[in-house]
Amino acid sequence: MRDIKIESTLTVYEDYNELPKDVASLMDQAIDARLKAYAPYSKFLVGAAILLDNGEIITGNNQENASYPSGLCAERTAIYYAGSKYPNAKIVTMALTAGSQKQPTNSPIPPCGACRQAISEYEVKQEAPIEIYFMGTSGKVVKSKSLAILLPLGFDKSFL
Ligand code: THU
User: Fold this and answer.
1) Comparing C-alpha atoms, which of 114, 119, 110, 61 is closest to residue 90?
2) What does pTM read for this prediction?
3) Among the atoms of ligand 1, which is closest to the Cα of residue 71?
4) Ligand 1 centre and the CA of 62: distance in Å?
């Protein structure tokens, strides 16, 4: 018997203003998307912007439903649209921002487990890392160099 240790390294930016210019402009698009989210039940608005290797930017936001489980997170709304519109493009970067309408959201909000699994599918498919930046509405921004860093021991097609 032996233990294994899994370590993750993330980069933390003190705030939005520290981001490289191109990332800040991708985050601007995620912020725009967040403000258009349909989240009447949770009042928790999430926006995602995806940069593809063909230069296109795809955005998405959470879409809720009176039948709660029928809603979809921002990340999956955006990534499924990217996958359906540009099936051969690679995803380079994702910018994510989330904010509650009930209280300040000043800490970075990471993608949920289901979204990590969904993003992982595309990272495995394209055999290239997807950079992910996530924040609240203000405050620190976290960067992960790949989805795999956020989802150690992930399940993928190699097990099927
Ligand atoms: N949500 C996202 O859009 N992305 C996540 O990664 C976490 C949660 C949405 C789903 C729901 O509309 C609201 O935030 C509260 O969970």
Assistant:
1) 119
2) 0.98
3) 12
4) 6
* 75 is annotated as an active-site residue: yes
Is the C-alpha dihedral spanning 145, 78, 127, 148 positive or negative? positive
| Calpha distance 118→112 (Å, rounded) | 10
**Residue 127, phi-psi category: left (phi > 0), alpha (psi -120 to 50), beta (remainder):** left
Instruction: Please tell me the predicted confidence (pLDDT) of residue 122.
Output: 98
65-88 pLDDT, tens digit each = 999 999 999 999 999 999 999 999
Looking at residue 62, what is its pLDDT? 99
The stretch 147-156 carries a mean pLDDT of 98
Q: Whose CA is nearest to atom 3 of ligand 1?
A: 73
Q: Please tell me which residue in 7, 14, 75, 127 is annotated as part of the active site.
A: 75
